[in-house]
Write a structure and sequence with these properties.
4 strands; single chain; mainly beta; 2 helices; elongated; four-stranded antiparallel sheet; 84 residues
Length: 84
Amino acid sequence: SRIDASIAVRVRQVLPNGDLFVEGTKILMVNDEELHIYLSGVIRPQDIAEDDTISSSRIADAEIEITGRGDLTDAQRRGWLAEI
């Protein structure tokens, strides 16, 4: 699947070489489904565009986690028998 989203992040740490460790979250409601998006990684200040944006392809050590809560997510979870 594919998600196009903009996520505001905060600089959590300035690394010794000047790179920035960033982290942020966003919650989206899509068709009564609550999606939680978490993003963290390392960016170079020179990769930040004039409008203060950066493409996810320019994030080193990127960790992007998408979890959901709602009927669709519940229906896609495996049953207890499949877990065994």
